[in-house]
Every structure is written in structure tokens, then in C-alpha cells.
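re: ur question from earlier - yeah i can do the single chain one, its not a big deal. heres the input i used so u can compare w yours
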Amino acid sequence: MPKRYVTIWFCYLKTDWFVRRQPGLSKLPFILASASHGRMMVTGANPLAESNGIYTGTVVADAKAVLPSLQVLNDKPGLEDRLLNALAKWFIRYTPVVAVDLPDGLILDATGCCHLWGGEEKYLAAIAKRLDEIGYRINIAIAATIGTAWAVCHFGKNLSVIENNKEGDALCHLPPQSLRVEAEIIERLHKLGLKQVKDFIAMPSAVLSRRFGKEFIKRLNQALGYEEEFIQSVILEQPYCERLSCLEPIVTATGIEIALQRLLETLCNRLQQEQKGLRIAVFKNYRIDGKIETIEIGTNRPSHNVTHLFKLFEINIATIEPALGIELFTLEALKVDDLLPVQEKLWNDKHSLENEELSNLLDRIAGKFGASNIRRFLPDEHYWPERSVKLALTLIEKPQAVWKTDKPRPIKLLAKPAVIEVTAPIPDYPPMLFRYKGKLHKIVKADGPERIEQEWWLEEGRHRDYYYVEDEEGCRYWLFRSGHYDETKLPQWFIHGFFS
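and the output i got, formated as C-alpha cells:
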């Protein structure tokens, strides 16, 4: 497929941006100004200011002398870069490959895209119409090379479509500036009477190179297609991203569901063929007014199950506001993991964590109530009880240690032990009474102590002597005394957990 490139020149990029935010400026001559070498210089002028002879590079004082009613606004440093990058991301609805052409342009790789709009002329017209509605005045052209498209866009007719192998004809009547060469070279060309590309396009390359340098020859060859030119896309093509453009804007939930179903089928088919499954996916809806509605989902284990993934998205489809309509849908897998077929067993515990139905259930619960409300704990190799467990990152994460079952441990463990008041007959005996949160508990059964030492390589501190106790109501607790018994002061007691 032959390459096709579109170049867009925003004739008044910054001033149009200011007008969008202050519509009253559209009827006034105004300029943008910033300090340079101790003077205020014009960095942008709207058409009304230019019609009075005020252009970029003019001293602000001189501009005010020419037009006393001129409005002067402070320019914003780096505004062009921010605007063009934002516009480049907005252009994903027309092509997945867009590059910024500072200071006031964009370059689109439109190869294979134009037929979706009914041809190249309609493609350019659709872009020009949308940008005009937003408030940007542009020139736009399409050609087989970036150089030709840029030249015609800046120095030729607006909305020009240059056919393949017609680059030379399109360039002939344009000035040398259209080749994007330095001002010094332009001046030398003019001195020699070479004021149009046709005056030197047929000259031998050796002669032109000797007089004007290799960069000049490079630009000419790029425009004619003899030398390839590359662009660096702002929007990098994602390896697992599917797009669906709409002939008519979608405004109903049913239409959104149909689009999502098609994207999921295409993406999951790719993932299945590559033995992969998605872990995080984002569904984006590009509205006509420029806003993007987004839904993001996550799974506990890799999945390419279309039905399951659709249910996860379906929970939040009602939150999408189509407004005047959605013209483009994208589905991107932000995180993908390997998903190899699992060998089935005749006798297997279906309630294990490997069970796919359990994983799907947890995904749906997480979609409704948030993934932070679902926790799985694994054993960790530490003596201190509050350090002996850790949060699992995924449902299928394997433990690096085994659960210790040689001694009883409470079902509920406090993150931080709570101080309690205790009555004990003899220092090393279990307590007879303890008070916790204002309630007095009388102990009828007890066992212990179990001594757990502090991990000296982590921090210094006292050991703990733990007791398993049961009160007269049948409730069981895990208590401990901190350190050795000291006759000079009362020992400190804590409650650390609750048994079932």
C-alpha cells in the first residue's frame, strides 16, 4: 500500500487558542507578547492585527504606535508544544500515527485511513470542518511524501490532494522556502535568480550539493520521494489496541455495547492465538465534542474470555455520557500476561484458587465495589506475628513460605496490639482478669506462655510472652506480656488477636 501523509498548518495556532477562551477577542486586533533582550516583542498576531501591518517579530512599542487600539496579551511559554501535543492525541480519531511539527503544525500518516471517510478529499474536508468548528484556522494537504504535503500545505492551495508520482509537478511553482531549508540558502537561491523550485529541480545533484550543501539535496530528495523521511509519532501504536470508527455518531447504550462486543471479540481472538490474556484493559469513547469517556477494568488472572470481560465493562456502561454522539471507540490492553492452557484433572478441588469461576466472581465483585475491598494474604517469614503475613499482589501468586500450623493462631489479628489492664496472681501465671475497651473479662481457661523473640536484625525491643485465654462468655483471646517481669513497675499487657 503506497504511503499517504497529511500535513496540517495551524495558521493562527496561539491566537485562535486565546479566542476560544475569550470569544470577544475575535472582533479585536490583538497580539501576544513576551520579553526578549530587554524589549517586549510580538510573538503572535491575529488576522486583524496582521491586516494593519503588525507581524511576529515586531517590537510591541512600534506595534502600538501603528495601532493605538491594539490589545496586548502576555504569551504563555511553551504553549505551542502543549497545544500541538494535545491536538495530536485528539487526532487519534483520524489516524493512529500523528507527529508534532513545531511551531504550528501536525503530520499525519494517513495510509489506509482515508477510505473510511469515502476518499482523500472527504477525509481532508472532514478534518478541516471539525477544526473550524473548534475554532482553528488551518491549511491542509495530502501527498505521498511528507515534504510535498508540507510544501503544498504552507505555500499552495488549501485542501490539496497530490496524486502519487506527481510530487514534482506540485512543487514546480512553489518558492524554495517550501522545501524547509535554512534562510541563508534561500537568500543565495534568490541572488542566483532561482525563485521557484522549477528553476533548479532539473539541475544535477552534484552541482546543487556543491553550491547549497547536502542538507538542501536531502530536503529536495525527501519531497520528491527519492529519500525516505521518518516521523516520530506522539501516539505510539499499542501492541494490543483495537479501534472502531463509526459512520454515524453513537448515542445509545445499546450501540456502545455492540461496539464493545466487537472490539472484545477482535482483541481476545488475538490474545488467544498468542496464548495471552489481559490483566488491565481500558475502553475509550471519543465524543464529537472532543471529550473522552473512559472505563477501565482489571482481572485477578489473565483472561481472554469475551463473555466475562464484557460483564466487567457492562457494570459501568451506564456511566458513559454520549452527549451529541461517539464517533470512535478504542479498546486497549494495558497489561497482558501469558495464559497457557491448564491441564485438567479428573479429581480436583474445584474450590481452589485455580478455579476460573472463582476468579471471574472476584473480578465482578471488584468491578462493583473496588479491588481494594478484596484482599488475599500469604505467609511471610517473620517471627513477629504482625509481620508474618503479607498482601498477595494477584490471585495466582504463589506463597514463598508455608503457613505455620504447629501452634494456634487467632482468626483476627490486630494490626497494632492494644494496651489492656490485667490482674495476674504470679508474674509468670496467666492473667485472672483483664479490661479491654472498658469491659471487664473474667478468665476461666488459659494456656501458655509462648515466647516470641524480637527480630534483632530488624529492630531492638523486648520479647513477648503470649497466652491463649477464654472468658466466662466463651470468647477466646490472644494476650501477651511485654518483656520480663519487673518488681519495680507493673508489667505491660496487650491484646493482639481474637479466636473464633
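Residues 412-498 form one domain. not sure if urs matches, ping me
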